[in-house]
Batch of 2 targets.
Target 1
Amino acid sequence: MPSKSFDFGASQTPIKTNAPLISHVDQINLDFKEKEVEKYAKEHKLGYVNLRNFPINPDALVLVSKDDAVEGRFVPIHAAGKELRFAAVDPTNAKLKEIAASYTAKGFVVQLYLISEESLSFVLRLYDKQAEKVGVKVLELNEDALESYDKEIAKMSALVEHFQSMSDVDILNAILLGSVKTHASDIHFQPEKGRVLLRYRIDGVLHQIFILPPDIYENILTNLKFSASMKLNVGYKPQDGKLNFQVTGRQIDIRMSTLPTEFGEAVVMRLLDSKKSIATFDSLGLVGRNRAVLEAALQKSEGMLLVTGPTGSGKTTTLYTVLHMLNTPDVKIITLEDPIEYHLENISQSQIRETEGYTFALGLRAILRQDPNIIMVGEIRDQETADIAVQSALTGHVMLSTVHTNSAVETIPRLLNMGVKRYLVGPALNTIVAQRLVRKACTACRKEVPLTGKIAAEMTAAMTEAKKAQPELEIPSVNHIYEAVGCPACGNTGYAGQVALFEILNVTKAFEELILAEATPREMIAQAQKDGMVTLYQDGLLKVLAGLTTIAEVMSVTSA
Ligand SMILES: [Zn+2]
């Protein structure tokens, strides 16, 4: 589905104007009136059109407000580039002349057509049905607007009070601006009985922003569906679409999906900020030996690097960071993605379309014919993709991908379950990175708690284990850790920003032999630790000691 900007001007599918049934006598009268108008138009060397069966371009309709159309007794019927066609009942009408002149002054060429009163009233009725709902453009958001909304967005609930006096477009703008301002990754509209919840996902957690009245939501939904090229008249089955908006030169692409629910269509919008800077290993929280292992893995000219973790664990961000580091002029990199979340220069990125039969497996076969050095496949989740990925990793390609497993070691049985031959798994694999995202404690309000008692003992035990794996590991020596509190700066969540926890498994010869020997997960973990693997839990506690996050966060994403 093509992405469509909020900027109006792109030609839309014309709305078919189906005339209501009318009686035979009325029809003759109408025909007679139309003939009269046509004759008059000819005499005055004007075009004539009967709008009853004329396709009206919704982009044209929105160029003039309904009030102006009523007063000027005309409707805009066509807009393409700088060419406009106005269909008027009376070419001498002052309001019509004024509006036409205002467009001419902006460089538009306005052509006048003559229409009957019937044509006019017919299309004016369409305004209510279409123009007010569909063609409304969303402003190009600018930093000024961002600032002026700033306070209100900080107190989102206060914004709701202004809704009655705001236009639908302004409300939608406020919602989009709010998402940018709060660094939200997703916007959720969730209809319930008599109300619609608006929530943002910020740092991986959903926050309720405010409650919308259903009638306002209805208009916002229509706007959004139109902008995302969805079928407006379809609300009974799920739809997917794309749209984008701009904030001072920065384009935010949005993937939007709808789902019919008991109380209306639910909408989730995933914000993809194309200018969002690529993370670095530092900003990801990849430090020390973990970082060294990954950097060493990136030096290899073949083999697989797999990033694993549940949905929302930051796998894609890590892969993009790796791709960015590998992206030098002397290598050819091709990716297969769904969706393409960042656009990278000098890399061929291909969008998978499963619904149209363009699958990861099919794409991967095609990619191999393009002679790449490095291949990134969004996800390995079926045998076919797994088999081709393994084969390419064994035949001189660097293969990057993600697998949906909870720990690094679990990736081995996962690949075997997908049908990859046991004797190929070890040789194909270089490195497995398991990761989780935790929220960072807000530095404005976090509270020091002494590191004593049970927590201190647990900490010492875990750090002793980690030190066994990595003797060179530097453990912060502190006598306190932090708990989250909550303040206005962090929206009372106690957290701001995220950092990743890593568990990096280096597939050594010894580890490969364990795979062949059908070792248990416990044996594999022991070997991995012997080879230097610090677990997610241990890495989490290290980040607690470093003051980055809290025990509660680490516990919520790992098990000891
Ligand atoms: Zn705070």
Target 2
Amino acid sequence: MKLYFLPGACQIGIHALLAEIGQPFEIEKAARPGTPEFEAYTQINPKGKVPALIRDDGSLLTEFPVIALYLARTNPERELIPTDIEGEIRVLEMLEYLVSTVHMQGYTRARRPEKFTPSESDHAAVRAQGLKIFQAGLDRAERQINGKDWLFETMTIADFALFYLEHWCVLNGIGSLGPSCQAHHDRLWSKVEIRRAVESELIT
Ligand SMILES: N[C@@H](CCC(=O)N[C@@H](CS)C(=O)NCC(=O)O)C(=O)O
């Protein structure tokens, strides 16, 4: 398997998940729009985004929640998603919320307001709107963890989506973490394989 990445982007959640699972994988740098390498990257992933996973049969998988589900399902011994329907849908519900709302609607507005409005005079308002959505997501996660180790009773793929959001918060000072989220972040970050994987993006 090969994971395409942009240093520090949301694929750090998938990268951490791959490191936790422990099956062999490679990483390769993707390209940003506007760079000379971008055209070549769109031949690999026509969406031009990360994460993108090339599976062992050569096929491409995109979209964070789908890649995470695929990895959980293909490594059932790691028990990263419940097998009962109620448990499964609650994990997917949280995963989807974290990626589609907290990241895409919240963090992206706070960090990249120009993606939402052409007018620079609107940027401050868009940023504020994004921060509100992002912080509401972190607060929701805080209440759900509420002193436990994970979002649910055991570690699941939803924890890896929360991890990248927490990591962005810690690194970029956007939003703030309550004590349960801070401990959750540190619990994953203290795993040597995860830290080594995420840090390798900066030197690859
Ligand atoms: N819906 C996609 C979103 C992926 C996404 O927006 N990734 C960002 C990085 S966090 C990206 O590729 N940004 C590059 C760009 O838009 O220039 C998913 O869930 O995987």
